[in-house]
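PROTEIN DATA CARD
Card holder: Diguanylate cyclase with PAS/PAC sensor
Chain length: 691
Origin: Allochromatium vinosum
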Amino acid sequence: MSIRCKISNCARSTWYSLLFACALAQAGEPAQALETVSLQFKWSHAFQFAGYYAALEQGYYREAGLDVRLLEAVPGLDPLESVLSGQAQYGVGTSSLLLARAAGQPVVVLAVVFQHSPLVLVARQDLTRPGTQGIHDLVGKRVMIEPQSDELVAYLKQEGIRLDRLVQVPHSFEPKDLIAGQIDAMSAYVTNELYYLEDAGMAYQTYTPRSVGIDFYGDNLFTTEQELKKHPQRVRAFREASLRGWQYAMEHPVEIADLILAKYSKQHPRAFYLFEAERMVPLLRTDLIEVGYMNRGRWRHIAATYADLGLLPRDYALDGFLYEPDSRPDLTKLYIALALLTLVSVIAVYVARINRRLGLALDEKSRSEERHRIIFQTTASAGVVWREGFVVTDWNRQAEAVFGWKREEVLGRSFIDFMVPISDRERLTPHLGRLIRENVLPHGINDNLTRDGRVITCEWFNAWLPERPGEPREVVSLANDISERQRLENEIRQLAFFDALTRLPNRRLLLDRLGRVLAALRRDGGHGALMFLDLDNFKPLNDSYGHAVGDLLLVEVARRLCECVREMDTVARFGGDEFVVLLGNLDDDQGLARNHAERLARKILDRVGEPYRLARAQVETAIEHRCTASLGVAVFNEAADEEDILRRADTAMYAAKGEGRNRIAVDAGLPGEAPDREAASHVDRRASHAG
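Structure generated from the sequence above:
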């Protein structure tokens, strides 16, 4: 037998003796009782805390030797204070934990659950400007911003919007205030409040700090330095069991939603919890990032944002703030015990353990890389891996399908050169470069090129890949083509708020704009005017040549009306051969406002009365036609209401018809005057049949 075999057998014999002795010692001890700890939520029960319910229900905490109590937040309770005072050992908090640490509070972040914060500003959609509404439209509007919304404040500051330029309203945490129009915008979670807006059918616009590179973490699991120092193993066990729970919860959302309803809260319907679960997927990104992962660079970026707000000093140190689960325990006692073994035994055991760990680590690394490779290649999103200089290092099958280039055609090339439209390159290249240097990877929506020259709109999600020593850092970017979705959304807006024939605003959109004009008058003073216009000789044209020719006349009348008014005014088709012109921002003096409205009415009457040449498809001879209009004008101020204005204008229009047609009648009286019965009933009939 060789010397190596003898040493190995000797070491193995000694090691088995030690294990046997330890087993006998443990057999004499009673079973260890579960340790009771509490976890303080920052809000009421919701899918937002799904991982902790799953860890409890699946027995992960019990397996870790823990009896965990989940504490729901109540009004007036500060989760941070609950943990610092010892009422709970663990808590869920926002990125403002960094401010608490800087203020001397001994908090330690154990894990990040939400890789991206769900906090956004949500505003009522301006239906008059689909697709053009921006964050600067909130200036002067009524906005509710909840406490500790530092990322929103930083976002507004970066956009040049000071808080004093908003009409700030105390936050009620009630989406119905936005739905009812009592406010214009509010801070909200994309996972929560948006459910009720969509359930109410309200059109809304969201503004996220991530659009300007401000990317805070969301919910963070935290504890105290005292808990970590006194119970390091308990901290590790609690963290690992919680993260196992989160992995399970995101893989079984329906089961956890039912669990919440059955055991924790019936405050919301089942559909709400499923909506919350769906909206959390792109915020946690468990398909790309290990649950609980924290990036020190991201925390430095958050600290820099707080420094810009004057809440932290520049270059604030993160020492002790971030938990390091892989830190080694104190092995002094173990070294003393091992010193009692013979030198040969120590060496043999050490080598065997190192070899085993190395083999397991290599196997696990290989399995992990293969698992992520399969996920990357089979995901439904177009996937691009790239490094500094925007150089593509990987390109999945869906990217080939969406953009058209094969993998071998793009490897080693800068995606800026072939995927980004020329008009966007100057803007995007320095912007993306700055974000990379600042360690920020925002979510974004951009136009992109395809190999066949098309321009498509894609929604992008980005994440850092784990670093490899000696290699450049890489980013994985996943894209979904949303061009068709945007087209359908625009079509739906067009059908809902615009007349299909003339492309003018319909009755619904007119009423919305009339409400806005009245709101502006109540804020700034002045007058407005509303004109009802009815074509006088429309029916004979329809009877003689058919509705197709009548439609040609209506389209031409709409075009002429739009030529007569200011860009800020509204021309709408009210139905049939009736049109409405809405004017705002007229003079404070009622007489001058009336004169302005009358001048425009005469201009409209003259323009509408000019001859028409109506060219029919596949017919050489155009139809010559003349028609006039009867026009009723109602001048109003801030005391008026929508129904009264419409009735007064309609009454005036019928007065013009009664006086011989092709003329103007003006009602400049005070609001509230009763129109004659015939005209009033006409307005009511039209309203009941408007569609």
